[in-house]
Design brief:
This protein is an alpha/beta fold and 399 residues long. It has helices spanning 3-38, 45-70, 88-99, 101-120, 130-134, 145-149, 197-208, 228-235, 250-253, 257-266, 321-327; strands at residues 124-129, 157-166, 180-186, 214-218, 244-247, 270-271, 276-281, 284-291, 310-315, 331-334, 343-344, 348-349, 363-365, 371-374, 391-398. The protein has two domains: 3-99, no CATH class; 123-398, Metallo-dependent phosphatases (Purple Acid Phosphatase, chain A, domain 2, 4-Layer Sandwich), CATH 3.60.21.10. It has a seven-stranded mixed beta sheet with strand order 1-2-15-3-4-5-6. A six-stranded mixed beta sheet has the order 7-8-9-10-14-13. The protein has a two-stranded antiparallel ribbon with strand order 11-12. The model has no long low-confidence stretch (mean pLDDT 94).
Length: 399
């Protein structure tokens, strides 16, 4: 065989392997996109669970199916055959799945050059190993097999951080010197028993130290309804420090969410779901609205013509961002996405239940209106965290 022919054969072999790899990777990306977008919709939990099971099967089985369709005989992709030599259905499936590699490439570029900086932007941060801090083995709860064996699992850590936000509103308001409001923001507690109750007690102890003017919780309180009384008991002391406002989330929607809301309200927390509340804080009028869309409650009111000094929207999902802009809010605070829970080297977060995919998975997004803060949250139904520790955030909002 001539040197030229050998070179052509090597190129053909490489091209076939690249098509195979692109198909496998693109298939996984397609199913991740489908799972992310579907979890942003008001779809019943059992159907979402079925979709996730299909994802769990489709990702590992696709390479085997591709091998079955393509084979290992002479002329197959893995033996140096061109894509156009394959059967019509094989060509169509390989082209369709390979297409989704483009979205993965764009996602990686967005993460590396923009989103990673936004996700990590903070003025000060302290990471606690809560089990070591409390010397309480019950902090860990009873993790499942995946959580127990996952290397470097951070679900029992807590990042207490400070982030600074500058708001410049064009809405009419009285001329006054600049003011700074300290908002304590946390979300997605997901009481399941893992981590244990003492973890959340430590969280509240840290929250009490932050000298906040306003405390807000943006949804997903429980995943085991029997833990609701304990969850309410643990959060109740915060109501003695500052006004405490909340909205509920899609996991609360799965249960008797009005009972969850009622018990929180009876403990001193204030629900702003589908409405808005005007508070006087540090000699300024602050209007706080709430959205539990698309799962529950009415839409929050329009505030563009409000004469308040600052307008804040609590929205469990960051997907309400464009609606918050239309309604005239200055700042939106969200959770729901857990920061992705697992952040892979180079790639970044993978799973994020949002119609924006992972683009708004976590962080401070200041170069837009309204300014958006998406917290990584505290808990999770599946207690696995990697490169994405739970967080409690104090926002210093100047306006």
């Amino acid at each position: 065989m001539s040197e030229s022919a050998a070179g052509n054969e090597a190129v053909s072999l490489l091209a076939g392997w690249m098509w195979f790899a692109a198909s496998v990777i693109g298939n996984a990306e397609f199913w991740v996109i489908l799972v992310n977008r579907s979890h942003a919709l008001p779809i019943a939990h059992r159907r979402l669970k079925l979709l996730r099971r299909l994802h769990d099967l489709a990702v590992p089985l696709w390479p085997l199916l591709l091998l079955w369709l393509n084979g290992l005989q002479q002329g197959s992709l893995l033996r140096g055959g061109s894509l156009w030599q394959q059967s019509l259905w094989t060509r169509r499936l390989v082209l369709f799945t390979s297409f989704w590699c483009l979205t993965l490439i764009l996602q990686v570029l967005h993460w590396q050059f923009r989103q990673k900086r936004q996700a990590r932007e903070c003025t000060a941060s302290r990471l606690y190993d809560v089990k070591a801090e409390t010397k309480d083995s019950a902090v860990a709860g009873v993790p499942g097999l995946l959580a127990a064996v996952w290397p470097g699992n951070q679900y029992c850590q807590l990042d207490v951080n400070l982030k600074q936000i500058a708001i410049r509103t064009s809405r009419q308001r009285a001329e006054q010197p600049p003011q700074t409001l300290r908002i304590l923001h946390f979300s997605d507690l997901h009481f399941t028993g893992t981590p244990g109750l003492s973890y959340y007690e430590f969280l509240v102890q840290q929250a009490e130290l932050q000298a906040a003017d306003l405390i807000v919780f943006t949804g997903d309180l429980v995943d085991k309804p029997e833990l609701l009384p304990e969850a309410v008991r643990i959060l109740q002391p915060l109501t003695r420090i500052a006004p405490c406002l909340f909205v509920l989330g899609n996991h609360d929607w799965r249960y008797d969410y009005e009972q969850i809301r009622q018990q929180l309200v009876e403990s001193g927390w204030r629900s702003v779901a589908g409405t808005a509340m005007l508070l006087r804080i540090r000699d300024r009028m602050v209007l706080i609205g709430g959205s539990e869309r698309p799962w529950m409650s009415d839409e929050p009111p329009q505030v563009r013509e409000s004469f308040s000094d600052l307008t804040v929207l609590l929205s469990h999902s960051p997907d309400q961002l464009r609606r918050a802009e239309q309604l005239g809010y200055d700042l939106m605070l969200s959770g729901h996405t857990h920061g992705g829970q697992v952040i892979l080297p180079l790639i970044g977060p993978v799973f994020s239940p949002s119609r924006y995919g992972v683009a708004l998975a976590a962080g401070l997004f200041q170069q837009q209106s309204p300014v958006l803060h998406v917290t990584r949250g505290v808990g999770a139904k599946d207690p696995v965290r990697w490169n994405c520790s739970p967080e409690l955030t104090l926002l210093e909002v100047s306006f």
